[in-house]
């Protein structure tokens, strides 16, 4: 017993509701495959921290021992040691950056690929509910916005934390009293940075949503179809104003994102920069009140360490702010990675080495959502090599029936079988090799004619491509072009007419050579002359294959082995062309264009 299919529905708007928190452990798990490299980075970070804190101690010896005692040999060694620490720190820093950037980019690649793969598995309903620019924005803008965080934050966090700990230990070793003075305001700084981080996280979430809106506007209005619609409707200026308004909102959010918390963070910088003066003052007061005197070398070394503490401390606070900001981006990416997928491959697919092509619809029911089903109890058998035509008024469920065979949707009741095997028990590759689809909505990539045809079979030779084009009645037209099969088809094939694009799609399907063919309104948008040329190509394509033809124009289905008339998701009539005309029923009314066919059948 199969579980009931749950159709995808878009998530409800989250207005007025705080976003769900991101599990930090899930972010950390992204780095698990690269734990070896991360461990190496940690070793380099530790070594760099130890080397960097050695320099102030060398400086103390220079000021307290080598110079006062005139020991030039020791002075030279100590000076050389300071130079060596600088060189080692630089080399270790370069190695850290190289390895951490590599790890970060690999994680970015994993995220991009994961989101793309998840979207490839989403049902068609998802894409009908989602703007194209929104999808692009998640992959490009959101994941791209995480680049700095993913590639450098982990290393920066470990490096700066190690540097802070090592520096504080060294400061305590020099003078614990001055160390206490230096760290008094640290809790205040941490509180400030946390508040700034929360503020930037909120702004970043709003900014990414606005970027998605802007991306969707560009995708829709600057496509070939969008430009044609805008110009023919006289809406080009209106579209420009709309884009300007959306861009203005983005500008406001970008300014807020760039300036949020800057004053508070600058206060931290000012206080940290003023700390040396405070330390000199504290040391002077302690000496004046009879406290233990500090040597000049110790005081200078301590101030040097304190100034060395300034950079990693501020960097740590800034990293915390950046991480909070990036949580908004991770949240949006994880939303797509967590999308439910209802059309999945079986755990143990049934092998189907040789496809004969028998297709059966067994008590098939399908519903896009609550309410009356689009298909209700449909029983049809299409023998291998036979032709089935499906006709009926608009909304009767014809295209939905055809979409169930290649599993563009899954049935909600009953089953669809191929050679007796439920199509849900076949792996995707087997089903794609077995079932070809030619629809009214022809899609061509912005690539050459040859590349578009090879999309069906990447290993196809030039001769095979030409043979498929000849069979589809399009070779002569392509060969007459200046660049022949190397001609770029333009966005969505716009350089070709509707009939030419349809014949290219037919040639692509011929090249794939599927034993089962679904023709979904393949000629409904063509003029009579072009339809004849395309129909000739379709006849060539259909020869010897199991063919299910979905059509509005009944002239294309007269010779079908069986014609099924759908109305309201149910079979109203079935038979051959002559049989159905002889009954003078629903099919005969359709052929006459009888207006009575617009009324739904009584169940």
TrEMBL record:
<keyword id="KW-0812">Transmembrane</keyword>
<feature type="transmembrane region" description="Helical">
    <location>
        <begin position="74"/>
        <end position="99"/>
    </location>
</feature>
<dbReference type="GO" id="GO:0005524">
    <property type="term" value="F:ATP binding"/>
</dbReference>
<keyword id="KW-0472">Membrane</keyword>
<dbReference type="InterPro" id="IPR003593">
    <property type="entry name" value="AAA+_ATPase"/>
</dbReference>
<keyword id="KW-0547">Nucleotide-binding</keyword>
<feature type="transmembrane region" description="Helical">
    <location>
        <begin position="154"/>
        <end position="174"/>
    </location>
</feature>
<keyword id="KW-0067">ATP-binding</keyword>
<feature type="domain" description="ABC transmembrane type-1">
    <location>
        <begin position="39"/>
        <end position="325"/>
    </location>
</feature>
<dbReference type="InterPro" id="IPR003439">
    <property type="entry name" value="ABC_transporter-like_ATP-bd"/>
</dbReference>
<dbReference type="InterPro" id="IPR017871">
    <property type="entry name" value="ABC_transporter-like_CS"/>
</dbReference>
<feature type="domain" description="ABC transporter">
    <location>
        <begin position="359"/>
        <end position="593"/>
    </location>
</feature>
<protein>
    <submittedName>
        <fullName>ABC transporter ATP-binding protein/permease</fullName>
    </submittedName>
</protein>
<dbReference type="Pfam" id="PF00005">
    <property type="entry name" value="ABC_tran"/>
</dbReference>
<feature type="transmembrane region" description="Helical">
    <location>
        <begin position="265"/>
        <end position="283"/>
    </location>
</feature>
<dbReference type="InterPro" id="IPR011527">
    <property type="entry name" value="ABC1_TM_dom"/>
</dbReference>
<feature type="transmembrane region" description="Helical">
    <location>
        <begin position="38"/>
        <end position="59"/>
    </location>
</feature>
<keyword id="KW-1133">Transmembrane helix</keyword>
<dbReference type="InterPro" id="IPR036640">
    <property type="entry name" value="ABC1_TM_sf"/>
</dbReference>
<dbReference type="InterPro" id="IPR039421">
    <property type="entry name" value="Type_1_exporter"/>
</dbReference>
<dbReference type="Pfam" id="PF00664">
    <property type="entry name" value="ABC_membrane"/>
</dbReference>
<feature type="transmembrane region" description="Helical">
    <location>
        <begin position="180"/>
        <end position="197"/>
    </location>
</feature>
<dbReference type="InterPro" id="IPR027417">
    <property type="entry name" value="P-loop_NTPase"/>
</dbReference>
